[in-house]
Amino acid sequence: MQSIKKLKNIEGKIALVRVDFNVPIKNDKVEDDFRIKKAIPTIKFLQNKGAKIVLISHLGKGLSASGTSGESLLPVGIALNKFIKAKFVPNIFGKIACDAIFNMKNKDVILLENLRNDKGEQSLNKNFAKNLSKLADFYVNEAFSVSHRKDSSIVLLPKLLDSYAGLQLEEEVKNLSLVFKKPKKPFLFILGGAKFSTKMPLIQKYLKSADNVFIGGALANNFLKAKGFEIGKSLVSDSKGIEKILKNNSPLHKAMDGQGKLILPIDVVVSSKNKFINKKVSEIKKNETILDIGKESIKMIEPYIKKSKLILWNGPLGKYESGGDVATKKIIKILVLQSNTKTIIGGGDLVSVLSKLESKNYKLKPNLFVSTGGGATLDFLVNGTLPGIKALG
After folding, report:
1. Is position 323 annotated as part of the catalytic site?
2. Most buried one in 3, 184, 189, 208, CB count within 10 A?
3. Does 150 participate in catalysis according to the annotation?
4. What is the pLDDT at residue 189?
């Protein structure tokens, strides 16, 4: 995987940069510009070398079943201009796009329309990739968060052009790789979210390599149910294999007692008759819904955070969109304001919380690395690579 830092003599050359600007948009405005900001250093690096930069990205699902075009990247283009001057081109291959690229001056930046508005992007179409390759002199992957997808712009383009890894993609690989081979000890893995089937490989892998694994979010509901606790109307999913995990890893319920690896919540916040109530896991009733881990569970996890030398955290600890965000915010503040432990965080909801903290002038510490990926981060943590990274090799 070649770094763009190795690029020489690219003044006047056209760089085709695959970014991931698949960001939330509401009322034609970008709600979270985290991924946009993370791509800016690579764009500026190429500008400083005198290159012409053509940005390509997808947004949403693209074409509908009837062939109607999906969302436009125009709102993204507007948001991008808050950080760097860029021209939005409502076209991928047509005359408008070709003319815009032909008339580019050194250091110019243009953003082409949504790649998924062409069916060739998601169908691994060689002609689509070939037509994209004709737009530029070399290719840069600055889209770690979509590099788990086998899309044409991710896995075919690198075979058609000299290809390089962007600065953020390099940082993703460097930081996420810290949990492999010989991670710093004690190593704490905090895992939340909802889909048990997608998180199961992570649980199995890191129960072997981490010193402790704390389970929160809807994932914890599956474990509590398997242990015989009432979970009421709480969200659960198919949890095949959970009995084997529990058999081999007796859950801890007292902080720092030195036994086992798996840590489950000892109390939760439930929604009952439109009220939020903190309860022990043994007190949940059939008509209640678990929204978050409780106050005692937060206190229980703090000593583990303080003694750890490496922390990996993926997924929120509660039903974030329904008010179950208290524990997630509290633990993030502990990590941001009180801890100097090397911490790697991934997951869309966690990133949103951090973005809001930054807007309140909380300065994120250098020890904190925030991954741009969701599914890509999960896949990398399990497999150690991604299709888009392999394609750069």
Report:
1. no
2. 189
3. no
4. 96
Q: Give the pair of three-digit tokens for residue 74.
A: 């125009």
Out of 324, 348, 373, 374, the active site residue is 348
C-alpha to C-alpha distances, 106 to 93, 126, 163, nearest whole angstrom:
21, 29, 20
The confidence score (pLDDT) of residue 258 equals: 40
Question: What pLDDT, on the 0 to 100 scale, is given for residue 219?
Answer: 94
Q: State how beta strands 25-26 and 52-56 pair.
A: unpaired
| DSSP secondary structure letters along 213-231 | EEE-HHHHHHHHHHTT---
Residue found under tokens 């199995």: 204
Q: Are 80 and 36 in contact (CB under 8 A)?
A: yes
Three-state secondary-structure class, residue 234: coil
Of the chain, the end-to-end C-alpha distance in Å amounts to 5
Which residue type is seen at 289? T
Q: Which of 35, 49, 199, 342 is catalytic?
A: 35
Calpha distance 124→389 (Å, rounded): 16
The angle, 0 to 180 degrees and rounded to 10, between the axes of the packed helices 167-176 and 375-383 is: 50
| Range list of H helices, 118-260 | 126-133, 167-176, 196-209, 217-226, 242-248
- 174-183, 303-312, 360-369, 379-388: least confidently modelled range: 360-369
Say yes or no to pLDDT of 267 above 50. yes
Read off the pLDDT of residues 209-222 as tens digits, 9 standing for 90 and up. 999 999 999 999 99
Q: What SS3 state is found at 51?
A: coil
Choosing from 195, 225, 309, 330, the catalytic residue is: 195
Tell me the CA distances in angstroms from 350 to 179, 188, 225, one per residue in order: 19, 17, 25
String of b and e for 95-114 (b: at least 16 CB within 10 Å)?
eebeebbeebeebbbbbbbb
With 0.70 as the threshold, say if the pTM is over it. yes
* Residue 195 falls in the annotated catalytic set: yes
| % pLDDT > 90, the chain | 74
Q: What is the pLDDT of residues 324-364, one digit of tens each?
A: 989 998 998 888 778 889 999 987 677 777 776 665 656 66
- H and E: helices and strands count for the chain: 13, 17
Residue for token pair 């243009």: 110
Separation CA 311–CA 339 (nearest Å): 11
Which entry of 12, 50, 260, 375 is annotated as an active-site residue? 375
35 as an active site residue: the answer is yes
